[in-house]
Each structure stands twice: as structure tokens, then as C-alpha cells.
């Protein structure tokens, strides 16, 4: 299992309607085959400057790679992510086994 998380801040030019449109578009990523447990998140901690997050899981690396190259994901990046996101951090986790 791979947990893919991205935390980000939107550009100051993105108004409330733009935030709503961004997350409506992001939610469509949940329909890509292999995506599990998709979540749109809003930061509440004052410990960092990121305002939002997206999180999802994939059963294996092959499904994660298919997601990265899927036309819906590529289109989301071009049409919504690049125009709206100011800063981000991407984290991809595997379960830690001791």
C-alpha cells in the first residue's frame, strides 16, 4: 500500500469560488482506477503555512504510476494545479514494518 499525500497553499489570487472549483476538480481524481480513500483536507494547525491537502491510497506501486500518468490526473495538473498552487510538499508513504 502506498499513501500519497500532498499539502499545499493556494495562490493569494484564488478566491473562495476558485477554491471551490479547485476541490471540485480534485475530487474527480477519485474516479481514477486504483485510487482508494481519497480525501480533500483543510489545515487547522498553526504549526505550518500550508492550507490544504489531498490524500489517497493505492494498493501497489503499479497503480500509483498509472494514476500519475492517467489523462484525468495530467489534465488536473495542467488546468487546476499549476494555475492555483503556490507551494506544496508531496509525501508518498509505505507502511513501516519493524
How much helix, percentage-wise, in residues?
25-40%
When the domains are counted, the total is 1
Structural class: alpha+beta
Written as H for each helix and E for each strand, in order along the chain, the element string is EHEEHHE
Give the integer mean of the pLDDT values: 96
Distance between the termini: 16 Å
Oligomerization status of the protein chains: single chain
CATH architecture: 2-Layer Sandwich
Tally the beta strands.
4
- In angstroms, what is the radius of gyration? 14 Å
- What is the 3D form? globular
The order of strands across the largest sheet is 2-3-1-4
Quickly name the level 1 CATH class. Alpha Beta
Put simply, the count of helices is 3
Low-confidence stretches: none
CATH topology: Alpha-Beta Plaits
Amino acid at each position: 500500500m502506498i499513501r500519497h499525500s500532498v499539502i499545499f497553499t493556494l495562490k493569494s489570487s484564488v478566491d473562495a469560488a476558485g477554491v471551490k472549483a479547485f476541490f471540485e476538480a480534485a475530487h474527480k481524481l477519485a474516479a481514477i482506477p486504483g485510487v482508494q480513500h481519497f480525501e480533500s483536507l483543510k489545515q487547522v494547525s498553526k504549526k505550518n503555512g500550508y492550507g490544504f491537502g489531498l490524500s489517497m491510497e493505492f494498493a501497489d506501486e503499479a497503480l500509483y504510476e498509472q494514476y500519475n500518468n492517467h489523462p484525468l490526473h495530467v489534465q488536473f495538473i495542467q488546468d487546476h494545479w499549476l494555475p492555483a498552487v503556490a507551494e506544496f510538499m508531496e509525501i508518498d508513504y509505505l507502511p513501516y514494518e519493524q
